[in-house]
Amino acid sequence: MKVLKHPAAQIGAAAVLGIVFGLIAGEWAGNLKFVGDIFIRLIQMAIVPLVMTSVIVATGSMSGSGMGKMAFHTFKWMLGFSVVAAVVAWLLSSAIQPGAGIVFSGEIDPTLSEQAGAATGWQDTLLSFVSTNIFSAMSTATMVPIIVFSLLFGVALNAYVTSTGNRLVVDVLDQVQQVVITMIRIVMRIAPIGIFCLLAPLAGTVGFGVVTSGLAYLGTTLLGVLIVTALFVVVVTLVTRVNPALLPGKLGDQTLIAITTTSSAVTFPTVLRTAIEKVGVSQRISNFTLSVGLTMGSYGAVLNYMIVVMFLAQTGSVELTFGQIAMGMALAILLNMGTITVPGGFPVVAMFLGTSLGLPLEAVGLLIAVDWFTGIFRTFLNVNGDTFVAMLVGNKMGELDREVYYGTKTVEADAIDVEAMEEQFAKADAAD
User: Fold this and answer.
1) pLDDT above 90: residue 43
2) Residue 318 in this model has a pLDDT that exceeds 50
3) In the predicted model, what is the mean pLDDT of residues 39-64?
């Protein structure tokens, strides 16, 4: 029974019980919906202060260290493959339609219908990114203007800190962020109850389509991970000219740890050793690229987040405009690149994305219920993607040792300062 003490196991058990109860009780299970809605609202009310403080603190604390040729090529490949992951997710979701199996009998929120019907030009879309009243945007959880304001505030704060050395505002906002994160952790203690009460009425209304939609969502994510991984291998092969047939054997240990722990942080020491001792990337390149990759190289997360956007839109029969699709990709990539740090796990991320794009949240419980499986897929791509980027950067910098790669030379990696990387490990686990 020890396994049931783990939060993921409790949520999984609650999800199964909720679906079974809903299928048996039918429409009566709808009486439990208000409890699930309370759970969603408890998380939603924390999103605005969490995003504001995260963006402001991240931007206000940025320094100019680590720039240069190596950093440029690292960020170039990471951003490039993040875009690829988002596009692959969009194309797959459009083709497979994983959320189409869930059709809500009730009417869509009038504000959503209004947004869908009022398709405007790109000028008006860009204009809507800037609010004349940030407090009005906060009260309605209009996320894009909030993010724009937070970025500008963070840039101004960064300039102020640089010129005066006074970090009081940054430190205060950092503490506020920690308090909000603690609040989310408290709310997540009732997650099993919330998930049960979200899935029971969904199953009672939709029927067995809940199960098939969950499987379609998982299948879309897995297929996307395999496609992006294959694209990574193709690019690495073409650029570095190494034999790709050797990669599975070299990446086997880190892959096994990644899919069994679903933690990039736990896998990091193995990833670093693999890059240096088996792949032939220099210690210098590996230290920088793989460390940055912990927080900015979550390609599996980008892929999954974009599929979430498409899934929620499809469950509510919301036709996304090209601008909304582009915004969904941008938000998924910003989450990955660390500009928007959303701790608290997948439930907060899913509701942040849905709220930002004005999407219905009725099916969020299903996504949360199967997140342990998608976590495996995300971590697999996050971990191996970082190794591929290290190979590409090492090749460009002339620091990819092919003798090590082909096993004719041995090297040994330096020890890792685990305490110094504690914050990066925490952010990496949030993305996984």
Assistant:
1) no
2) yes
3) 79
pLDDT surpasses 70 at 429: no
- Residue written as token pair 């073409």: 238
